[in-house]
Design a protein that fits this description.
Strands 2, 3, 5, 10, 12 and 13 form a six-stranded antiparallel sheet that branches. Strands 1-4-11-7-8 form a five-stranded antiparallel sheet, with no helix packed on it. The chain contains no helices and 13 strands. It is 0% helix and 41% strand. The chain is mainly β. The protein has a single domain, classed as Sandwich (Jelly Rolls), CATH 2.60.120.
Length: 172
């Protein structure tokens, strides 16, 4: 997380919990030229009334929480949309800041980089929370949100701009 070597699979004690009903997706077997780190993702805000091969009940928004972080510490966090067959961006809110997270349309668009949330301060218990929200109606896959992962790095002092980080993949 914040020390060299932690991006090599060393356990950190940090936990991600998500509240909401998702559809786990891994497109890698079907589209083998996709980026394997972004071909697996959580989908939501689609088929909330059922249909499309899904049962009713998929969430329109997801709330998430990172725990086990150092208390009152400053972090930079990059959020990644997925790589799929169509654009399925979503809005992410962290500490009141809302930013759109684009996805990669494997048919026609270039791979977007992450969206950087800078200078996020964990609370006194070492927790950071956020909300991922679909954009638009949720009755079919037209406005589905696809989130594939994030990067998190602790910074000694608040900084701006990209930092070297490790990739945290959302797994099914």
């Amino acid at each position: 997380m914040d020390e060299p070597g932690h991006n090599r699979g060393v356990a950190t004690g940090v936990t991600l919990s998500i509240t909401g009903t998702i559809l786990p997706v891994d497109l890698y077997p079907y589209f083998p030229n996709l980026d394997p780190l972004r071909a697996a993702f959580m989908a939501w805000n689609s088929w909330t009334s059922g249909g499309g091969g899904n049962q009713p009940g998929e969430s329109k928004t997801l709330t998430w929480k990172l725990t086990g972080l150092p208390p009152s510490a400053t972090f930079n966090m990059c959020i990644y949309g997925s790589e799929a067959d169509t654009d399925r961006g979503f809005n992410m809110t962290i500490h009141g800041l809302v930013m759109n997270i684009p996805t990669f349309n494997s048919v026609s668009s270039p791979l977007p980089s992450c969206v950087l949330f800078s200078n996020i301060v964990s609370d006194s218990t070492g927790t950071i929370t956020g909300v991922a929200a679909g954009v638009g109606e949720s009755l079919d896959a037209k406005h589905e949100g696809n989130w594939s992962g994030f990067q998190l790095i602790q910074v000694a002092t608040p900084v701006s701009g990209p930092q070297r980080t490790g990739f945290w993949r959302v797994t099914n």
